[in-house]
Write a structure and sequence with these properties.
Elements (H helix, E strand, L loop, with lengths): L2 H15 L6 H17 L4 H14 L11 H17 L14 E6 L6 H14 L4 E6 L6 H12 L3 E2 L7 H14 L4 E6 L7 H14 L3 E7 L4 H14 L3 E5 L8 H10 L3 E5 L7 E3 L2 H8 L5 H11 L2 H14 L3 H12 L4 H6 L6 H7 L5 H10 L3 H5 L6 H11 L3 H22 L14 H4 L3
Parallel strand pairs: 1-4, 1-5, 2-3, 2-4, 5-6, 6-7
Antiparallel strand pairs: 7-8
Length: 449
């Protein structure tokens, strides 16, 4: 997400930092480069011009500052303006005082609307807001089946009625079921089209008038750039959308849609889809996203992911065991499995300040690496996991054969594990600020190279 944009902006600021002292001419040249980068990222032309005008105005006195490096101050100005461009502050779902809150999802076919409906229902339910899905797409073949399948997988109830194509009636029935079941939210998956047309909009306007939704969220494909903005304008003019969900952001290296859609519509981006997994729907925070774009990291989101994915009781149990008996390979395996719940390692590392796409490419992170490590450890006996010193040459050869990995990988893992054991001993002897201060950061993550 935003890899191209981040790299080019970082390269621009790196050149400015090399100047030490910035002249007005340096700033003008730097902003000219920022302009080129934003336009290449498919950001709206008018928004880019207004953005740069504000940055240039704010940067007018940057050379007079003594306490902060001028280039760093310019980065701060760009950061503040990026936050403003992305929506200034987080805007969550507006919940009705009288449940259920009715959320109507609209969008074109192929934008990921049905999948997003299921992800949103799962997310809201996990947050303590029981949610029901309503299958109101009666045109696309298997749309109802798809939603029912997703609902069953995620444990979310789905209302569907195959006896009628009256979507207003289907939606009202679903809302009534939610009311009876005392559910907090009803998410309605509506039909899409290959393009915006009068018939489609007429149906959606009729549905809106019939159910009076609390939220009308446009689901837009983030990878379509300015097309997503144009589509959003069409839906907003007809329906008055209240917010946007951008999907497929994990595949969007440029970020033109995310950087343009709020500025054009003045409607908040509420969520972003960052993968195919059921939990790959994130709250959208403009300040955190600006930090990611400028490679400042996003530690708050990482902490939230850890809090929701990691087992605190298991972490405490592991800490107690490591303090008392030291770390063995079974503990390492348990911790590594917890870490995998956070998502792909590359995505986790990108949330750390200073880590960029270029560094990750050079690190050559293989997503299969954790599975290989798991296979190696599982090929050991319980005694070998507890005491890796038992692994002589013949035992290592057996483990390599059992895991299907070369013996060099087994040797490398054991070597790295010994290094990690030494590190854990040092951390464990650090008093109150030792392991307790690192709780929630699994050894599997600390031991990875």
């Amino acid at each position: 997400m935003f890899d191209e944009l981040s790299e080019k902006l970082e390269a621009t600021f790196a050149r400015l930092r090399g100047h030490g002292v910035l002249t007005p001419a340096d700033i003008k040249e730097g902003l000219r480069e920022v302009r080129r980068v934003l336009l290449e990222a498919d950001v709206n032309f008018q928004l880019t011009r207004e953005f740069l005008e504000r940055v240039e105005k704010a940067a007018a006195g940057v050379t007079a500052l003594k306490s902060v490096a001028p280039a760093q101050q310019l980065v701060k100005i760009v950061y503040d303006e990026l936050v403003a461009m992305l929506g200034e502050r987080r805007e969550g779902l507006k919940l009705s005082s009288v449940p259920p809150t009715v959320v109507m999802l609209v969008g074109l076919q192929g934008s990921g609307k049905t999948t997003t409906a299921a992800k949103l229902a799962r997310k809201l339910t996990a947050e303590g807001r029981p949610t029901r899905l309503v299958a109101a797409d009666v045109y696309r073949p298997a749309a109802i089946d798809q939603l029912e399948t997703l609902g069953a997988q995620l444990g979310v109830p789905v209302h569907a009625d195959r006896t009628t194509d009256d979507v207003a009636r289907i939606a009202r029935q679903g809302i009534e079921q939610s009311r009876r079941a005392r559910e907090r939210v009803t998410v309605i998956d509506t039909a899409g089209r290959l393009q915006i047309d009068d018939e489609m909009m007429h149906e959606l306007v009729h549905l809106k008038e019939a159910i009076h939704p609390d939220e009308i969220l446009l689901v837009a494909d983030g990878m379509t750039g300015q097309d997503a903005v144009r589509i959003a304008q069409g839906f907003d003019q007809a329906l008055g959308v209240t917010g946007v969900i951008l999907t497929k952001m994990d595949g969007d290296a440029r970020g033109g849609a995310a950087l343009s859609i709020y500025g054009v519509l003045k409607k908040p981006i509420k969520y972003i889809g960052v993968g195919e997994k059921p939990d790959a729907l994130e709250d959208f925070h403009p300040d955190r996203m600006a930090g990611r774009i400028l490679q400042m990291g996003d530690v708050l989101t990482l902490v939230e992911k850890a809090q929701s994915a990691l087992d605190e009781a298991e972490a405490r149990k592991l800490e107690k065991k490591v303090r008392k008996e030291g770390l063995d390979l079974q503990d390492f395996l348990s911790a590594m499995r917890q870490m995998q719940k956070l998502g792909p390692l590359e995505g986790i590392l990108k949330m750390l300040p200073g880590v960029n796409a270029k560094m990750l490419r050079q690190a050559n992170l293989d997503p299969k690496r954790l599975k290989h490590i798991e296979a190696i450890v599982l090929s050991m006996t319980p005694a070998e996991r507890q005491n890796p010193g038992l692994l002589n040459g013949s035992r290592r050869a057996r483990v390599a054969k059992g895991s299907g990995r070369p013996i060099s990988e087994v040797n490398r893992l054991l070597e790295q594990f010994r290094d990690m054991q030494k590190m854990m001993k040092k951390v464990g002897s650090g008093g109150a600020g030792g392991l307790r201060g690192m709780r929630g950061l699994p050894p599997g993550m600390m031991g990875m190279r």
